Amino acid sequence: MKPHKLNSDLTTSRLLPKGFNKRKFTVTYAVTTNPYFQEIQNLSKTQCLANTSWPQIDKIRGWMVSAETATFMKWGGLGVIATELPEAFNKCFGPQGENLTVVTPLYIGNTGKKKTELIGDKYIGAEHKEIELTKIRTIDVPFMSEKNTLTKYKVDIYTGHFGNCDYIFLSNDRFFNIDPHKDNPPAQDGCYIKNKYGINEVERFAFFSKSVYVLIKNICAEKITEIECPNVIIANDWHSGALSGLFKYFTTAQVENKTMDATLAEKIKALPVVHIAHHLGYQGWDYENTAKILNSLYEDRAAVVFKNAKAIKNSNPRATNTLIVHDCYNQASCNFHLADKVVTVSKNYLEEVSKELGFGFDFRDILKIRKDHRDFFGIVNGYEKKLISPNQEKITAVNKYFGDTDFKTFDENHLEGKLHNKEEFIKLISKIATDKDYKQKVIPLVDIYKFEDISKVIKNAEKTPIVCATSRLVEQKGYDVAAQAILNLSKKYKDAQIEYPVFILGGAGDINYFEMLTKLKDKVAEINPQIARRIFVFHGYKDEFAYAIQLASDFYMMPCRFEPCGLTQMEAMAKGALPVAMSTGGLVDTIEDGVDGFRTEAFFCNNRKVYGNNLTAQRLKNNENAYTETLDKALSTFYDAPNLINAMKKNAMRKDFSWDVENGSVYKYHNLLSTGHL
Q: pTM of the full predicted structure?
């Protein structure tokens, strides 16, 4: 069947027909003399070529619009940045009258892992933090119902203060409920759950974006005066990816239709949007609800906006319309095309996503254009050092939890505690292996595989490298690459007269990776049972257990297929565990090879060299070989040059990734928000 143009009903009707995307079609853009439609058609080109001027901002009054916060609903690194960047910003610039306010949903419900509730004026978030709230107003947010009719949903606006930050919470019982649906996929949890009303995460965050837009509209129209209008918006990843389209497309289309005052529209359009992209693999796709979400966002202007939402010309036929990719609604797409500035979370990841299809996906060409026009920036995520360094309060709590452990604090000037912690951990892991009741008490929800008592086997803990990997069991983290490297080195070391390494591998996530790791232990047992008994494989997560592992470990394995910024390596370095990492993303920006960690000499994506020189790439051929070589280098250095390892540990612990250190990331964000440039 030949692709056909959008039919006349689609282009002239006010709403997009249900299922319009479920047949082969091409989007054509008619030549128009209508200045409003011309503006919409040219907007992507204008934005991506940086043909707009940044507004004069003397004092920043910004909003961080984020679906996650580390304070109240955390699932990953984007929640950390949503809390820590505003905290650091307000600490540094608050005294001069500047501030960032966090805008986030007020989630209610219990997923089984995450529980939130509003009791009177007190909100208790999923991370067990409490905040006193004041209800400001209720707004009406038009959105399509399950019966496919445009419905005005009530959204309550609350404000509160926590730490150094003001918060604005948006509350709606239907969209921000997190009680799980019976058909909720097992991997979905927290704010990503399919809830009891059948709302998935893409529809939820489209509603979130629409709610923010309606709130901004009410403030700009002076219908809400209790909240100050922001002068810059930070959209934290794909969850708020619809904002630029609402601010720029929707307002223009309403002015054309005489349903919005032109002065009000200009106020909203003038608000600059800075989009922060974390991992580009997460974009907010929703094929089934494409028409429903677009109609929800753009209401009776949906068809007009869609047929004029022309993407900047590029070589990718899948990305010719800013609102969909190929035939599917894509929440990130609009901000990538229309945001005033785009930021990603490390300089090296910026290079990867603007060069490689395997990283930039459908947006590689657009991001390259933005980069070439100095409209795309890489700023490494910060991480408050005081939160991740070994500290007495946390270590005391860990010792209390395990009952009879004696982990000690240490710092870069006193590494004796690190060796002591290795000895303590060897005793702990051996007790877990031999005492079933104790195991059930301390890590009841963690599955273990053939744990063995090594307390009598290890004669000298100082000369025994402890190597760990405690990230999520997902494809990104490269556990299969780690397993192959361990298997390769087991063959090399099988007859060596050394204290064999202790490997602790596991985490929450995909059961298939746990099963793969169990097979690794069995394969190594066939080569050398003495090496295999030092391989500890587990499935699940317990914070005290993970913390104890890092306190004891000499090395932290990060054979990642991608890592836009990475926070785990920062946590490990702060505890004197040297990262052994793939040279990808933020790992390149944060780990200095041979100084405070080890990185591969080459890195490959889809069989293409992404990092390293050509000769090295030809020699290594793939990531498995590159990582095996690097892990071997780290272990050989441990055995042959222990003084160098200790010096590297000190270097790693001295590193400070805090937002507000001299020339830290918070100052880069301040420059960007103030001037539009770093």
A: 0.93
Tokens of 398: 């860990």
Angstrom CA distances, 371 to 90, 276, 354, 355, 562, stand at: 29, 14, 7, 10, 20
Q: What's the CA gap between 466 and 34, in Å, rounded?
A: 68
Closest CA to 575 of 476, 661, 468: 468
pLDDT for res 186: 83
451 neighbors 517 (Cβ within 8 angstroms) = no
pLDDT computed for residue 9 by the predictor? 36
Is residue 190 within 8 Å of 113, Cβ to Cβ? yes
Measured CA to CA, the distance from residue 649 to residue 244 in angstroms comes to: 45
Give the residues across from 503 on adjacent strands. 467, 535
CB 494 within 8 A of CB 581: no
Q: How far apart are CA 198 and CA 203, in angstroms?
A: 10
Q: Is 303 helix (H, G, I), strand (E, B) or coil?
A: helix
Q: Per DSSP, which regions of 31-98 are E strands? A: 61-65
Tokens at 131, concatenated: 């905040």
- Euclidean distance between CA atoms 79 and 458, whole angstroms: 41
Q: Are strands 376-378 and 341-344 parallel, antiparallel or unpaired?
A: parallel
Helix axes 77-93, 665-675, angle to 10 degrees: 80
The C-alpha angle 476, 479, 480, rounded to 5 degrees, equals 105
Residue type, 488: N
CA 376/CA 336 separation, integer angstroms = 10
Please name every residue paired with 161 in a beta bridge, in sequence order, or none if there are none.
166
Q: Counting Cβ atoms within 10 Å, is residue 18 exposed (0-12), middle (13-18) or buried (19+)?
A: middle
503's tokens: 């490997």
Q: What distance, in Å, lies between the first and last C-alpha atoms of the chain?
A: 50
Task: Tell me how far the alpha carbon of residue 320 is from its chain's centroid.
Answer: 27
Run means of pLDDT, 10 residues per run, the chain, 678 residues: 36 80 84 96 95 93 98 92 96 97 98 95 97 98 94 98 97 98 91 97 98 98 97 98 98 97 97 97 96 97 96 89 96 98 97 95 96 96 90 95 96 94 98 97 96 96 97 94 98 93 95 97 97 97 95 98 94 97 97 98 94 96 98 98 98 96 95 95
Report the C-alpha dihedral over residues 289, 290, 292, 296, rounded to 10 degrees: 130
Binning the chain into helix, strand and coil, the percentages to the nearest 5 are 45, 20, 35
Q: Is 543 helix (H, G, I), strand (E, B) or coil?
A: helix
| CA-to-CA separations, 527 to 486, 488, 498, in angstroms, rounded | 12, 10, 16
Task: Encode 353-420 in three state secondary structure.
Answer: HHHCHHHHHHHHHHHHHHHHCCCEEECCCCCCHHHHCCCHHHHHHHHHHHCCCCCCCCECCECHHHHH
Helix (H, G, I), strand (E, B) or coil at 141: strand
| Enclosing H/E stretch for 603 | strand 603-605
Tell me the sheet residues that pair with 169. 104, 158
The answer to whether 441 and 412 are in contact (CB under 8 A) is no
Side-chain half-sphere CA neighbours of 678 within 13 A: 15
In 512-583, the DSSP E strands lie at 535-539, 555-558, 578-581
Using DSSP's 3-state secondary structure scheme, residue 574 falls into helix
Report pLDDT for 46: 95
As beta bridge partners, residue 509 has 473
Structure letter (DSSP) for residue 103 = E
CA distance 200 to 193: 6
